Amino acid sequence: MSKPRVAIFDFACCEGCQLQIVNLEEEILDLINLVDVVEWREAMSEQSSEYDIAVIEGSITRPEDETRLKTIRSRAKVVIALGACAAIGGVNKMKNNFDLEEVKQCVYGKDATMPHLNTAMTKAVGEVVPVDVCIPGCPIDRKEFGAVIRALLLDKKPPIPDYPVCVECKANENICRYEYNEICLGPIIRAGCGARCPTNKFRCFGCRGYVDNPNVQAAAEVMEKYGLTVEDLKQKMILFGSKQGYTL
Amino acid sequence: MCECCNGQTDIYLPQMATITKRKMLTDTEVYMHLEMDCGQDLAYQPGQFVEVSLAGIGEAPISISSSPTQKGLELVVRNVGSLTRAIHKLQPGDKLGIRGPYGATYPIEEAKGRNLVFICGGIGLVPQRSFIRYALDHRGNYGKIIVLIGTKTYSMRLFCDEIALWHKRTDMKVLETIDEAHEQWHGNVGVVTTLIPKIENELAGSLVLVCGPPIMYKFVLISLADAHVSKENIYVNLERRMKCGVGKCGHCQINDKYVCQDGPVFRFSELALVPEAI
Amino acid sequence: MSVRKFTSQQFDEFVSAMLKTGRPVIAPQAKDDRFAFGPLSSPADLRLDYDVTILPPKKYVLPQVEPLLEFEVFGPYQSVYEGKPMILLGVHPYDLAAILQTDELFRQGYYDKHYMDRRKQITIIALDVVRPSINVFASSMGTATISKGYDILLTVLKDGSILADAATDKGQELLRLAGASAPASEADLKARKAVWDYNAAGLNKHVLLCKPSFLPKLLEQHYNHPVWEEKARLCYSCGSCNMVCPTCYCFDVQDQVDWNLKNGQRARCWDGCLLEHFAVVAGNHNFRKERSARFRHRLYRKGKYVPAKIGGEIACVGCGRCITACTAKIANPVDVYNRLIQDTQLG
């Protein structure tokens, strides 16, 4: 059986998720044993228009990117949205909270009208083309990336959790950030990161997006129990939660 | 568990079995005949299930469709997820892991001398077939055998050849229906409950055995209540996520019952205080 | 063997002797602002004065991830047993009560060799509670003190000395490792009794308004009580109450495959009935879809379903961990049970 061909593409992002793949270190050799990487701008110069699995990093922020993404989708059997930007739009979606012209003016000033700086509302990959697997996170968890790739090669459902971060946070025997009166988004955010932030004594920032059915209304009411306000909560939800369909 | 494996003490360790026959029954259901590699038949009874596993992919509970009166083990697997998709790719000669059999059986003793009415919806026919075949193989032990089969569409009907043979038998009665009309289908159209009035006279004193999708139970049980069938005379076969099969993992629990141990076959009257059942 | 009495220095020597056996000694230690069971490296890290650990010692009896089988992809399989001899030091009575319940659940019916094999290699040194935690209600549940299930029972007396009572051969053998100690006097035993008497009533930050043995009957009457919906409205379905519970033992089973795609492991890992997808079957039908149904299920398991399997003992031991862990502050079993008691017609 020939090895599946993998191509890795990036759109609007910091490329930090690709870096996590590079950071697989020895395991990257295991990965290369299983797949042929035919295009990966960050790590090699070759390009290809023939691939089985397309790994997409970054959010879609320009009309021409939509066209490019649709071409990739038409060529690939499997499309993986890699990282918060691709999976949920990521921090780039904060832009969608404002008027687009205002955003351009704010960022580019007098150059805002130059054609190459054209910009549109930010979209997650799945808002432009069908996505087979989302590997969320900012950045992704490389162990999870490995497990997803192995699952796909075995034609198995990728092991992306559908429960909140609290499960992993409790398993790590952390003290709940709410006991320090911090607003942690863990109870409404999808696990899979190993509760990386709370384990390092930061609140959950919500980079993996919401669980399937987050109790956002409860989150609002629970704030009171900690002397916090819904406004406080809303603030925390802007970074990764902007325009994600669950609003207060 | 087969005789020779009885000394085996790890309840989670599957025994290997080989697929000896395989046939697609529909686009989504594969039939498989298996034989245990140890050479002995599983000691199972109608109504029980096995945990089927494919190492690396996973494990899932699958009802046994064959009768212990026949050689080997027959399963029908619907393609609904990773594991079942992988099972669908297997061919004769390929191997599967098997644990079990597990669970409560159909009331084969209590049913002796009684009329049996099987009400089957969709793949609910699969486990029911085990008892139907068992009863046919012990024909003298049972009264009338009536089988009602409801299927959503024409192409989803299971065991068509076997059912054709059942139709020809004079010692059983089979009524079929499909939910959606089809040009090649000349029989009843409508849900399985529409067949119940046709056999209403046979219901008194019969044991009624029901198996089908979750939504079917509600309607069938209402119809049976309307027909004055007592809950003591109804058996249902419930589907839950019997992850471990041995009453530990908690996934199949409905109120205080473990479907993998107390079921999957339940006398309906025993579910009176089990609101999560139906 | 009679009860031995240690000064705290002598007890440290005993702990050092245990550490020298090479067997891991798992004991409560400080973790940030709280306590956690972990491998002990020095007697100085041992905190006999801990109030409660974030996770119960269950994690050593039923690990969060426990390999059951090794396999080649598509079979065959081989059983894996990873348990090793271990000393579990400083287990509070309520946590020990929970372990004894779990023992019974994995023993009965289909004997779970994975659990039992690991369990048999664990020596348990129980410890009477020195300092009640903020949410403990073990006194309400009858688990504030314990008289069975341990190999040694430790009690810290008011003067700081420590009594050690070996109840099994394993315990006596371990106690022989100790250097200097004295036999406990009548007065010491009286002082120990005073600790027990105090704890039997004093570990009770939330007071259950009925005897625990009444809970199955109570729950029988209130399946459709409004409290389930009222509380569960704020439930995140985050499973925190399950994760920190010493008596929760539900698990999921998953296959992991190595990078060579040839070898792998089948492992069980903790699961929780509060999580949304716990009762989902193939084809995505969810048999416990409502938050309130899942919320109710946990409290029925604790107060009715599990007790029916283990001879009546209530499967909530009053450790109070779920109360602390629940971000929405709805998990307190006493709150719910007391609410039901108030709405119960007696007689």
Q: What do you see in this structure?
A:
The complex is a heterotrimer of chains A (248), B (278) and C (347). Chain A has 248 residues and is α/β, with parallel strands linked by helices. Chain A has ten helices and five strands, in the order E-H-H-E-E-H-E-H-H-E-H-H-H-H-H. A five-stranded parallel beta sheet of chain A has the order 2-1-3-4-5. The model of chain A has no long low-confidence stretch (mean pLDDT 92). The longest helix of chain B is centred in the middle third of the chain and has 13 residues. In chain B, the strands form three sheets. A seven-stranded mixed beta sheet of chain B has the order 10-9-8-7-11-12-15, sandwiched between helices. Chain C has an eight-stranded mixed beta sheet with strand order 3-2-6-7-8-9-1-10. In chain C, strands 5-4-12-11 form a four-stranded antiparallel beta sheet, with no helix packed on it. The longest helix of chain C is centred in the last third of the chain and has 19 residues. Chain C is globular, with a radius of gyration of 21 Å. Chains in contact: A-B, A-C, B-C. Chains B and C meet through strand 4, strand 6 and strand 13 of B and strand 4, strand 5, strand 11, strand 12 and helix 11 of C.
Give keywords.
heterotrimer, A: 248 residues, alpha/beta, five-stranded parallel β-sheet, 10 helices, 36% helix, 10% strand, globular, C: 347 residues, alpha+beta, eight-stranded mixed β-sheet, four-stranded antiparallel β-sheet, 13 helices, 12 strands, 34% helix
Q: What is the molecular shape of chain A? A: globular
Report the largest inter-chain contact. B-C, 42 and 50 residues
Q: Biggest sheet of chain A: strands side by side, in what order?
A: 2-1-3-4-5
* Terminus-to-terminus distance of chain C: 50 Å
Rounded Rg of chain A = 19 Å
Strand order of the largest sheet of chain C: 3-2-6-7-8-9-1-10
Describe the main β-sheet of chain C briefly.
8 strands, mixed
Q: Mind telling me the C-alpha Rg of chain C?
A: 21 Å
Query: How do the helices and strands follow one another from N- to C-terminus of chain C?
Result: EHEEHEEEHHEHEEHEHHHHEEHHH
Give the helix tally of chain A: 10
Which parts of chain C are unreliable, with pLDDT below 50 for 5 consecutive residues or more? none
Strand content of chain A: 5-15%
**For the terminal residues of chain A, how far apart are their CA atoms?**
51 Å
The average pLDDT of chain A is 92
Strand content of chain C: 15-25%
